Every structure is written in structure tokens, then in C-alpha cells.
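Q: For a teaching session next week I want to show students how multiple molecules come together into a single three-dimensional assembly. I've collected the sequence lines for a complex. Could you give me the predicted C-alpha cells for the whole thing so I can convert them for display?
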Amino acid sequence: MLGDIASVIVDGALISAVYALIAIGFTMVFGVGGVLNLAHGALIMAGAYTYLSLVSDSILASVTLHPIVAFPLTIVIVGLISYGLYVVLVRTIEENVVITFLATIVVAIAFTELVTLVFHAQPYQYSVVPGVLQVQALGTRILYVELAAFVASWVAMGLLWYYVTKTDSGRSIRATSMSERGAMLTGVDVSGVRARTWLVAGGLAGIAGVFLGGIGAAEPTMWLEPLALAFIIVVVGGIGSIKGSVAAAYIVGYLQTATGQFLGQSVRGIMSLVVLVVVLLVLPQGLYGTEFVHE
Amino acid sequence: MSDREQTGQGVGRLVGRAESVLRDNILAQGAGVIGAVGQPAERLLWPVAERYNRRLGERFGEVTGLQLLLLVVALGGLVTAPLWGPDYLRPLTLGAVWAIFAMGWDIQSGYTGYISFGHSALSGAAGYTTGLLTLHLSPELPLFVTVPLSILATTALGLAIAVPSLRLRGPYFSLVTFVTVLLFYRLTKALSHWTNGLRGIRVDVFTYDLTLQYYMVVVPMLAVAATLTYVGRSDVGTVLIAIRENEDAVSAAGLDPTKFKLWSFVLSAVPMGIGGVLLAHVNAGVDPQTFVIVDNSIQMIAMAVIGGMSSILGPLGGAFLFVGLRDVFLVGLGEELRWLALWLLVLLVLVFARDGLFRLLWRALGALGGDRR
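A: Of course. Below is the structure for the complete assembly, covering every listed component.
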């Protein structure tokens, strides 16, 4: 029992950090551009498959990079994919919310088919950091990959925090999310800010993708779950709020881990959906969000 | 501005250029040719259209001669399909089922702008009601028991989704509907001892006579099309579109938008129920992969988008086009490439022809009638 509780505490903390990464990118894009990017899950999948292609010799025989090189490269590539998605597609249609909404989900589904075409439907397993750490005192065990995910995600969040609070380029992102008109009046290039937000969100999704694929497996339908998670976390935390996303990621992450541990894995996914519905009914604006509801 | 952003704008400009070349040269030329043929035809047909307009125009919308011709040809083609396309009865039957879904989605999401990603859950509810009734109660249950019960169950589920979620505005509504599908999908697995999990439940087909089966689907489809076109053209349809354009204005006019949105959801759930029952019998079974998964909801949306959202008949045409491409014309491409091509088509329509292909056609035909209307 003590071991169970300890493993819930540890596992919850580890997986929640990745969830936070997923949700932050999603909520930033919404906060700055008012665009709900339903292709966000596809970017996470892009992260997993890019990393897989770079490190494994079974996909591209000529390319086999060391993880230390492949990891940052993956982040850059997925960031650029996200940036390209914005510039080529979303920028031309973003004034119409409904069209953007539909276009991004179609991109996500099309991406599934593309991945199936190139990599086939079967799941790929790959290791990011091999090995297991036994914690004898608590009677629990931690995969090194989970630990690495935890560290990488908090480093990324720290860098992001530094970027949006200490640098002008990052501060203009925050300014735009607070008031687009105000930002424009103080000389912020709003269109550039949006594009940069997509770049950052893509990079974060790339990190999350590498680790989600590493903890589970890379497969063509792996975007659905993270997208639903991003939804749930962002709604619980309040749409557009980074702080809310981190808090909600931990709530959802712990809840999932605890229900998975004590009630069984099949209940695990359903639990967060139930939480979502309850939050929507009781606290529709989320923990830190702005009002988005009417009676 | 960074180099990257300049490249981005370059790409944007290139797309814009391609678009204008397409518009100015190819489409304009085409329009010239069509005009030369179309205008005399229009003059010939106009008296017939006028008679139609006087009798039914108020209820189903006024048409020009060529538009009426299109409708008559399409209707004639559907009714006589077993004569001219006996080999295509299966895709046509499926096209008709999906047309019901696309139209059902359209009266709710297309008209009000509240995009639902959850409509496959509604069709699934109908399919599963039929399936569960036949599996656990009696396989001998007659259709006049299972069909109304399935539609009723769909409507009930529709209300259960709509009542809480329609209090929410904008994206939240879509999020909840999306999650509903995931929940439904998980439940079919979690309740495997009832639903047989991924294997699904076997349901008897209506009949092994493909022609008869085709008519058993097409007739309800035409009824749904007529009803929803009538509703869309009525005051209710106007209010629903007004909700999409400016919900506050609707409230200010003294109408309760939430009440109308609920009605649109019910109007949408009933066709989803009809379509769900039909699909269960046409497919000889119900399982989460062909009924519930999110992709199915997106397919309904894709059909409505291709045809033209908020026009009922547009989604109907879009469904036949989509299923035709999917099951007949693009089959040679292989599973993944075929889907990739389809989704690309949907994306292109979303970006370059937001109002949909069939509405473009409809307008082009209408334009040939000049300003007689």
C-alpha cells in the first residue's frame, strides 16, 4: 500500500510534467491567436516519429544520430513544421474560427494517413534513455526515460518562463495574449508574434512527442490521446493561461495515475473525461481562465 | 523581420498567385463556354422554373431554370440508379446513408456555427440500440419496434450532450462533443461483455436484394432532405443562421438562442438516428470502428464542407461525392494515399472554396439566369 502511494506520487509527477508541456503549447497558440490548433496532437506525433527516424537505423539507414544530437534536432524540426503549418495554412484562414477549426482537424487526420503510409500502422518502440531506477526505500521503480522527461520538461518550462518574462521577444508574446490592440499600439508586430508562438508551441510539442513515444510507442493514432488531454487540461486550467495549464496538468496527471493504480487501467482514461464534464458545469472558465460562457 | 518569415510570406504570395491565375484564366474561360451553352438552355427552362417557384418557391427556395434542371436530373438519377448503375449500388447506398449523416450534422453545426465533433456518437447510439436490442432481447424484433427505439435513444443521447454543452460558447462546445466520442468509444470497450468490444454486434441486413436495399435507404434520405431543406428555409433556419452570425443580436431580438440551439440539436439527432439504424442494417452489424471513432465525425464534417455548409442539399451532394471518391474513383490509389487525397481535397475546399463545391455550382447555374430573380 505504501509502495502504491509512493509510486502514484512519483509516476504522477513524472507524467504530469509531460502533460504540462502538451497543454502549454496548445494554450499559448489559443491565447495569442485565438486559434484552437487541433493539429497539436499531430505535432506531438511528428516529434515521436522524427526522433525515431533520426536515432533508429531501421527507418532511415543512413541517418543514425546519437540521442544527444537527435533530441534538439527533433525540437527544431517539429518547431519548424508547426511554424510552416501556421504560415502556409492557418495564416490565410485564421480570421474565420470555424474554418480554422475544421482545417486543423483535417490536417491532423491527413497526418495520420501520411504517417501510416510512410511508417505503416504497427507501433514502433524506441528507447530514449534506457534503464530503470529502483527506489528500495519506497518500494517503487522509476524508468530513466520518465525521469529524463520530467527534467527536460521542467527545463523547457523554465526556459519558456525566462523567455516570456525577461526578453522583449517573449514579452511581446505575453503582451499580445493580454491585449492584441494594446500590443499593436506599442509597436509589436502581431503577425510575427503569432508565427513565433507557433514555433515555440511546436518545439514544446516536439519534446513531449519524443517522450510520449519513448514511454509508450510511436503509432499513427497516438495524436488523439494527447490532443484530448490538451483539451481537458486547458479547459480545467482555463483557456489561454500557462499557469493554469501547469496546475491542471498536475491535477489531471495525478488523478489519472491514482485511478489507474487503485481502480484499474480501463477507468484511467474515463476519469479525466468525467473531471472535464464536472469542471465545465461547475467552473466553466477553468481555474485561471477568462470568462467564456453564457447562461 | 527574420528570413524565415520572409520565406513564409513568399509561400503565401505564391499560393495567392496560383489562385489568381486559376481564377482569371482557367475558370473564366470555362465560364465563357458554359455561358454560351447555358444561357439559351436557361431561357428554355425558365417558364417551368417559374411555375415551380409559384407553387413551392416560398417553402423550398426559388430556383432558376438550370438549377431546377440540376435538381430534377439528380433526383431522376437517384431514383433510377439500379437501371444505370447496377454495379454501383453498394457505394450509392452508403452514399445515401452518409448523406443523411452529413445533412444531420449540417442542420446543427453548419447552421448555428456550433461545430460538433460528436455526431458519430449519435449515429453510434442508434446502431448500438438496434444491435443491443437484437442481441440481448430478441433477434426477431420487428423494424417498427427497433427503429423508433433507436431514434429515440439517439435523441435522448443528443439531449444529454446538448443540454449541458450548449450553455457553453464557441470552442468549449466542440471540445465537449469531441470528448463525448472518445468516452463513447471507451465505453464500447469497457462494456465488452454487452457490446462484444471491437468485434461489435451482428445485425441482420434488411434484405439481400441490393436494389430493394438501395430504395430502403434512398427513400428515407429524400424525406430527410426535404424536411431539413424546408426547416432550413423556414424562420427556424433563419434564426439558426443568425445565431452563427451574431448570437447576442438574437438574444437582443427577444429570442432565446439556447432554446433554438437545442432544437437544432434535436433536429440533427433524429436524422442521425435514422442514418445509424440504416447503416447498422446495411453493414450487417455495429462496431466502434465503423460507427463511433472520431474519424467518422470528421468524415461527416468533410462531406458537409465539400458540398457547402448550411445548405442541406450541399452536404447531400458532398456525401455522394466523398463516398464516390472514397469507394469507387480513388480505390486504385490504395488505402492511405486515397485518404490522403481525400483530406487534401477537403483542405483545399476549406481554404479556397469555403462555401463548398456544390454551392459554387449552384451559384454558377443561378448566375446564368441573370438577374431575373
